[in-house]
Design brief:
By secondary structure, the chain is mainly beta. The chain folds into two domains: 41 residues, no CATH class; 61 residues, no CATH class. It contains no helices and six strands. The strands form two sheets. The protein has a three-stranded antiparallel beta sheet with strand order 2-1-3, with no helix packed on it. Strand 1 and strand 2 form a beta hairpin. The termini are far apart.
């Protein structure tokens, strides 16, 4: 994430705003001017290969052939051999577990 950071001179009479990559050790709420541009850092995108497994149960309980009502519950398990940093002060992780509930409703057309 890139942010606009305020840099004051030694006398605090003048300042400069520069776009920099976020570093929690140096950037705090008192020197952050705003979020950086959407395309900043696009050239620094890296590849984190990994695998995931998704499983779920789907329950359909429509009363008519033309009506769809369903409920799906399940989970996904992600693994990356290279640890991924998700938040600034949290340790990097290899494993991620996600649980989900999905409700579907609608109408069928023949």
């Amino acid at each position: 994430m890139y942010l606009y950071i305020i840099h004051f001179n030694s006398m605090f009479t003048d300042y400069e705003v520069r776009e920099e990559k976020y570093n929690p050790e140096y950037h705090f709420i008192d020197n952050i001017y705003g979020r950086g541009s959407f395309l900043a850092g696009l050239t620094q995108i890296g590849l984190h290969p990994g695998v995931y497994v998704k499983t779920g149960l789907d329950f359909e309980f429509g009363t008519k052939n033309r009506q769809i009502n369903a409920l799906e519950v399940g989970g996904t398990f992600d693994y990356s051999p290279i640890p991924v940093a998700v938040m600034a002060y949290n340790p990097k992780q290899n494993f991620f577990l996600t649980l989900y509930i999905s409700v579907m409703f609608g109408k069928r057309y023949n």
